[in-house]
Amino acid sequence: MSTVRVSTTINGDAVAYLCEVDETLLDVLRDRLGLTGSKEGCSTGDCGACSVMLDGRVVCSCLVLGAEAEGRDIRTVEGLAAGDKLHPLQEKFLEFAALQCGVCTPGFLVAAKALLDRNPDPSETEIRFALAGNLCRCTGYDKIVRAVQSAAAELRKG
Amino acid sequence: MPLDSNIDPATHKFNLVGTRPLRPDGVDKVTGRAKFGADANAPGMLVGKILRSPHPHARIRSINTAKAAKLPGVKAIVTAADFKEGKRALRDVLCNVMARGKALYDGHAVAAVAATSASVARKALKLIQVDYEILPHVTDVDEAMKPGAPLLHDDMITAHVDPAPKKPSNVAARCEFGHGDPEVGFKQADVVIERSFRTEATHQGYIEPHACLASMGMDGQGELWVCTQGHYMVRNTCAALLGMDVSKLRVTASEIGGGFGGKTTVFIEPVALALSRKAGKPVKIVMSREEVFRASGPTSSSSMDVKIGVTKAGRITGALAEIRMQGGAFAGAPVELGAMSAFACYDLEHVKSVGWDVVTNRPKQAAYRAPGAPMVAFAVESVLDELARKIGMDPIELRLKNAAKEGTQSSYGPKYNRIGLRQCLEATRNHPHYTAPLGPNEGRGVAAGFWFNFGGQTCVSLNINIDGTVALAVGTPDIGGSRASMCMIAAEELGIPYDKVRAIVADTSSLGYNDISEGSRVTFSTGLATIQAARDAIGKLCARAAKTWGISPEAVVWENGHAKPSSPNAGDFAPLSLADIAKKAGNTGGPIAGHFEVNADGAGVSFAIHLADAAVDPETGRVQIKRYTVIQDAGKAVHPSYVEGQFQGGAVQGIGWALNEEYVYGKDGRLQNAGFLDYRIPVASDLPMIDTVIVEVPNPGHPYGVRGVGETSIVPPLAAIANAVSAAADVRLTELPMSPPRVLKAIDGKAAGKARR
What we know:
Oligomer: heterodimer
Shape of chain A: globular
Strand content of chain B: 15-25%
Mean pLDDT of chain A: 97
CATH architecture of the domain at 26-34 and 455-600 in chain B: 2-Layer Sandwich
CATH topology of the largest domain in chain A: Ubiquitin-like (UB roll)
Number of domains of chain A: 2
Low-confidence stretches of chain B: none
Shape of chain B: globular
Helix content of chain A: 25-40%
Number of strands of chain B: 26
Distance between the termini of chain A: 50 Å
Largest sheet of chain A: 5 strands, mixed
Mean pLDDT of chain B: 96
CATH topology of the domain at 26-34 and 455-600 in chain B: Aldehyde Oxidoreductase, domain 4
Largest sheet of chain B: 7 strands, mixed
Strand order of the largest sheet of chain A: 2-1-5-3-4
Distance between the termini of chain B: 63 Å
Radius of gyration of chain A: 16 Å
Structural class of chain B: alpha+beta
Number of helices of chain B: 21
Helix content of chain B: 25-40%
CATH superfamily of the largest domain in chain A: Beta-grasp domain
């Protein structure tokens, strides 16, 4: 299998890697770069556990090739906190007990961050539809939706 | 374990129990640091992949691995021949892990390879040649029971039938529970209703696929990192299948990305160990989602007949259920638990339930949250709903008139201790949801549910650190926030702050045997063991204080985290804190630790009532849940947020089971929807908020009154939603899932019936 060299930006840092041409961005993040916060739940883009931001858009990193990251800007769950300070979404997920097993949590946080970046005051329905691409089997989504509502309110306060 | 005489959970003022602190594993899980099954790597690691049968039923004439073995990068290949046949009890587990002689379902493992990369491993699988003789197959439970059905096992003689059948069949066993004579009861009834029901198999649907990393040394010692609900079970089973001493295999439970019962057995773990042993290198296996659906355990599908009679005054006079469940290719469908739980909510004179455990060409079922109970509750609670309508009685009133209470002889045998069913029913009747107005095409359903809850083998180690903090080692994987609850319980007992206790899930070499995290047993039994381990440590802390003071240990008491003389007569000494005593432990006798080992008994049964409002679109048959409330007895909620989380999660899994989820098999016996696109679990936009009411009727078998809460919450939803949909559509729905085509068919059938009249 031939390999390609890729230069990209991940969580603000310049990163270069070699990957096989059929390797997904998720595999690169997890297996080559050690960024295992993004999870593989299905590898078909149905569960959202591998959600990352690619140039400001939420994508399933299992549906993006590692080679496609050349020159792009990638943000993963590992880049959500600022140094030792959690992002308000992370804090609210903890406060509202919005996770049980926690394997879907990175994807939800990335998708919720993307929502709040473009819509700081979403309705419950808007939150539910923005997160409809992320599967959670533990919580029934109730506490996740409440955590996002509360984080949105906190972020609006500035 | 008797109720602690010092504590009445109903009136006792707890410091921490009942509060909502942040979970200790939380930050790792919101930052991506938490290590799940697939997140571990080892130097020189190989990738393991499994070849699976494309046929639902086929004899394996031969497996030729020669070509695959020659592929550069392939380091090991295993088949059934690489495993010891061993004990009979493990035969089915072994045959499920790797097909032996016959492939019994689409997805059954037949061989596995370990290679230097995933792409080499995939290529190698394609080079393995399996010569199959295709056999006729059967995937439906009723079809599998018929004489002349394709036979899975030549030696399967139905157990517990007298006289024993002479011929083999697909029926593994019969079971029967109850007392009195339902036929007598039906004669006393004013109204008798009998209906048949069917439910399809559903998958637990945990988001994290099975994953493990195995490393076998050439000295025969092995290590295994795995996402599982029970790493001691994994250790014991794998050691037996690989012919190892239990002591030579050390298993560490990773963070677990959901299990719901589905991670209570082994699938890939013995394969990874066998590959690693052969290759002399670590091997990681991660299932794909397709493999999870095709080859890990879904729950059973079922076919049931339920007959219940009531008087006009609402007294149930007789109840009868016949339940048939297929559990896939091997015996073990949870029909016994289904039959036991069928009428467990009610105080009945004449009751009987009969169950049949049937094998078919499907993956071996695995436990799924209250295994067996939700589908049977669907049937029973649907008939009760219909009876309530027929006699013009409020459905909660009907259930209250027949509700089991303390002293009731349950339909499955034992007499109930203190239980909270009546309290749940009354809380439901008083809830604003129960009387809220409904919109057009909307219906409201109510249903009750029961679950046994389990205790089981548990052991805990609690070490007092030099700075007065506490290291708590438990052996039950944390599947729903149990480390938080255990820290709370230890801190409560010791009288120290919550954040001074750190709980870990110890590996199998660091702590004694623990049963699997299943049966809603962890907060009950690991909590109980933690209480007793803390009390054991307190005894030692008091003895050290006594030694320091030169008084008798009996003259020291423990209060609010301090040792104190028990009375002025005992001496006049300033209280010593846990930290004071810990600091000097080296001079007073060495390290201080508390331990407790138990086979916990006394897990109190629990009940729940669910209220569902469903809107049915008469044009499309689509159902939407508009409002949902869970009312459940938790005994005592240690961390209410995570108790609510269990209520909500169970309800939503039930909503998926009721409305969308099903295993779809083609005529070819292959699973048609092995992915999250076609096997659709509920998403956020499908649902309303899930309201919860925590009822607390203390369990007399636990020092704080705790009852398990994880499973009961999935028992009522199938019925509650079916009752809501039946009310909205004005026609009884008897098959799950109530997908749009089924609902539409029922609506059309009703219209056709009316037209004929």
